[in-house]
Amino acid sequence: MFPINETMGQYSELFMLLAAGTYTVAFIAFAWDLAKSSKALRTVDLRAAAAAGSASDSSEDASDAGAKVPVAAGAAGTAGLSGRADAGRNTDRVEGHLAGPAGRAERPSSSVAAKAQGSGGAGQTADASMLYGGERRVPARVAVALTVLGGAIHAAGVLTRAIGSGRVPWGNMYEFLTTGAFLVVAVFLAVLIRRDLRFLGTFVVGLVIIMLVAASVAFWTPVGHLVPALQSYWLVIHVSIAVLSSALFTLTFAMSALQLVQSHRQKAIAGGGEDKLGFMRLVPSALSLENLSYRINAIAFIGWTFTLMFGAIWAEKAWGRFWGWDTKEVWTFVIWVVYAGYLHARATRGWTGTRAAWLSIVGYLCVVFNFTIVNQFFNGLHSYSGL
Amino acid sequence: MSERVKSTKNPPAGEAPKAAPEGAPDGAGGKGAGRKGASSKRAGAKDASAKSTGPQGAVKAAKASAALPALGILGMLRWAWTQLTSMRTALFLLLLLAVAAVPGSLFPQRPANPSIVTQYIKDHPDYGKLLDSVQLYDVYSSAWFSAIYILLFISLIGCVVPRAIAHYRAMRSQPPRTPQRLSRLPEYGTLVLPAEAGVPASDAIEDAAALLKKRGYRVDVRHDDGARPSLGAERGLLKEVGNLVFHTSLIGVLVSVAIGGLFGYSGQRILVEGDTFVNTLVGYDQFTPGTNFQSSQLQPYSIQLNKFRATFDRESKGKYGQPIDFTADVTTKENPGAPAKKEVLKVNDPLTLGGTSIYLTGNGYAPVVTVRDGKGNIAMQGPVVAKLQGDNYYSSLVIKVPDAKPDQLGFAGFFLPTAFVTDQGISFSGDPDLINPQLSLNSYYGDLGLDNGAPQNVFELDVKGLTPLNARNLATKGITLSPGKTVTLPDGKGSISFDGVKRYVGVDIHHNPGQVSALIFALLAVGGLVISLYVNRRRVWVRTGRHEDGRTMVEYGLLARGEDHRLAGEAAAIRGLLSSAWDLDADGPQKPSSISSPAGSAEPKKDS
């Protein structure tokens, strides 16, 4: 067993504070970027609107075209498969394909649909591909640079904590939160390499600041050894996957929340209303947000399945049963079921879009509840969170 | 233009009747088919009820109901089955399951700790009983929770079986026929082979077929009459297999859990240093048999606790005294006659013996006391298990001495491994190690009530029928003992000596025949899940034709089943492969808008 190094622990706490400070500045920069870009975009819009007349019409046209193409494609595809069947039931078929893929026309990966979006005038959204455009956004660059700096300091904090305690840095709630927050930043920055998700910056960095503050204020624990119940290699496996999945769920929570706002805005604009949320122009359309958060949620769901499974294996090793409806197990199960519901909702008509986003948000709220309330106020076998 | 005539002879792809399983919307599979029927029926019902709110609602409702065809019993069953197996219902049941699981974390549960439930009902006389009547203390075996998951699993079976049959057929059938207008597919592109390349349409389709086969597609070439040959290709049939495996494995997990509940058993036993546990029914302090348990299942192995060692943190200031290691040295025998074996039992490191696993789940102190009765005889001698109550092994202790004469004796109080007393006279334990062990007890005499045969909790002393001898509020004061000391009880009732302290461990013993299969099914489920989420089911169609000027025109289209964000990438990859096979420039001007489509241009201009 490694000796405890308390000096390292103190360094770690200093790093965490510094990281939180840097993130705060990054947060301000991200917010500034949203405000500034929204202003710039509005001027461009106004000029374009003046030039091209009614801009909202063209936006509708564009979205119409986007929807039409895949409808037809879906119909052709469906019918194509069934061409071998006997030719007598034509009326049946027509009804079938009208009721069929139309509802999901805009859902499949169709690049045609994706291209058609974002080309509207007023009520515009960012490009659905979320690739970097040519334009330089100075505040956004500053914000990302600050986030990288904060992430580096944060990494040092996590590392010194691990060295200080001579083990993996996720043995109690303080460590889970600080390491989890670091992973959120790391995943966010990793995705930023390929995709322009800077519009998520305020959200993600804001959540990270909340996590760091909560860790330091509510869950602070000095460096120390693990209690015997936690001394198992399963801690490394089970908890690391739980932290990673939670970090991914944090990202999708941010996206789903933005998706709701964006879809509200799109609806308001489509209904002829005024665009009151100008900063949302930087954010892609609700549908592309939904698609991306679905992809991330799918990864996180697999991660959560592993969390559940490895947790069960560890429980079998530590307590003699792989499942006992302990409060923590109950909530882990509830979260799993909610996200399973989310994945199914995406394949159920009437449940995509806003409802799916709500499921994703409810799932994340369950994650937060499971971490905070269940750990602290419910008695159970997991009550050794170091508080 | 002859091709054009020919192509209209075939029913256009968009107008052929649909085969039942394939006709479902892409990505929804079998559930989609069921859902469609169900939702349209439901919409009808909704219409009727909506109308009934109108002014002439009653008449209209009557008309609507009169117009409904009689379903009959079979029809009703069919309708109910369609409803149950629809995706909407499955989703609803799934979310309901999540909600129903929550109360189990809010209220104490009997299987986890029955005594807490009893206490809870006592503490909440207003609604405690009411909660019990709706099974809120046995949530996970309650009728309503079981109903939800059983319905969910029936719905799941009702979905998986037809889907499995449909998929089996799909796997054995050829890729779907080539749609008339490939340009309507989500991914579409064209390539032009110059006349000097000398690749006729039929060769081009064979080239494409070979390429797609190499890429893992099942390919079916349709030469038709040779003028406009095409191919249909499909890959990713594993996606649905993964999906089916995932859902079937969940059923497997449920069955494994049920097997564990039927044939498994578990029990607890407290072992003081020196004690031996023999795996028979009487050897357990507490025993929970499965529904089909037979006592002959127990193999009479034995475990003796030789020594228990606990290590506490002495380095860290913040966590001083926190336990960092528990180790129990035990001697085990597989059978009464088998050779003894020395083994180590630790937390997170169970022993396996006779088909069971033995876990170290708790530990504490057991003060050794000697009680002499009023006649001076030893009425009780040995270790007494102290029950953990608070920090640093602050434990409660009850000693019942039914053999004491003339009066039975009882003691109740606390054991502190490192006793500290505050200025207010409150004692607490300052350290988990035995630095200053102390027993503080009240004593009683009278009838302990053990003789009438009613079972009693060994950790509780019912003082109702007893007369106090020593107590804090009496002149005699409470008994405070350190090791080696003896206190004489007042009125010549006897004496009590504190001889020393032993440690004890709590062990859990479990046998669960379902857990290996549960693990296997869980692993299968995860495997299936990953496959179903990351294998993409895609269809590719290629059609070639010869232009009048000798060029060979190639058009291709891709369609994904379900969500597939990499379909565009696949289209680009296929385009690249075809181009390099024919030595074309992949980024050439072959956009649908810039060239004429293959001979006989089937597309109206507005599509391009």
Protein described:
The complex is a heterodimer of chains A (387) and B (608). Helices cover 70% and strands 0% of the residues of chain A. Chain A is an all-alpha fold. Chain B has helices at residues 2-9, 29-51, 57-67, 72-84, 87-101, 103-106, 114-123, 128-133, 143-172, 201-214, 238-263, 515-534, 567-581, and strands at 187-193, 218-222, 230-235, 265-272, 276-278, 286-289, 302-312, 323-333, 341-346, 351-353, 356-373, 378-383, 387-388, 395-401, 408-416, 419-421, 427-429, 438-446, 466-470, 479-481, 486-488, 494-511, 537-546, 552-561. In chain B, strands 4, 6, 10, 11, 12, 21 and 22 form a 7-stranded antiparallel beta sheet that branches. Chain B is elongated, with a radius of gyration of 39 Å. Chain B starts with a helix and ends in a 27-residue tail after the last helix. Residues 1-55 and 589-608 of chain B have low confidence and may be disordered.
Keywords:
heterodimer; A: mainly alpha; 12 helices; 0% strand; globular; B: 608 residues; alpha+beta; 7-stranded antiparallel beta sheet; 6-stranded antiparallel beta sheet
